[in-house]
Amino acid sequence: MFVDLNCDMGESFGAYQKGNDKEILNYVSSANIACGFHAGDPTTMRETVKLALEKGVAIGAHPGLPDLIGFGRRNMDVSAQEAYDIVLYQIGALHAFIRAEGGSLQHVKPHGALYNMAAKNSELAMAIAEAVYKADPGLILFGLAGSNLIKAGEKLGLQIAHEVFADRTYQLDGTLTPRKQANALITNDEQSVNQVIRMVKEGRVRTVQGDDTSVQADTICIHGDGQHALEFARKIRSGLETEGIEIRAWYASKFVQG
User: What family is this protein classified in (predicted)?
Assistant: First the structure.
């Protein structure tokens, strides 16, 4: 049994430092690197790519809505065409840095509001999946387990990875509890570890309504910008390994090459 452990990274911007990417890279198998729209900047992208390659961590593009002020977590009324364009643009930007450093792009995972909107909106999901496919059909598309984004990727023949979250609560329909709600985040490390292990081993998660819902856990997301993110990453990895669950990346059969 194995699972991918991914983390959102490269989210610093100019003089503003966010997260502890260098240390967290010791505990994850995949890194989702911000591409400059919701967070990150060219220098941060280059530096994070180099760090990930040095650590042997698989690299993914983490395209978001053009909303630096809101960190890409506010819904925007973007058309399917706009979604396609901004995702393709950001994949291309990160790919240039990866290529310059001699690496390969493994996957694409939309960020924040764009991710959650695509989980429910089939037209938006298809536009994002098409952008990934046109960039390179060998890339893996990360999406919320069982969501419209996963279905769109499958329809196009993309490799997909069902994603679950270590520090978020779930609704009965399998969606994440909106961040605006007080119970959206899990702050107890033991509760998070137990939730992750159950999702991986049993394919089930307890919802905020008190009932279970089914999930497929191919890759687990941890957030790198929390106050105790590094310690949290250690505990999640340790908890999985204690259960005999191997941590490794979902490498695509065909990479974006130079």
Answer: Belongs to the LamB/PxpA family.
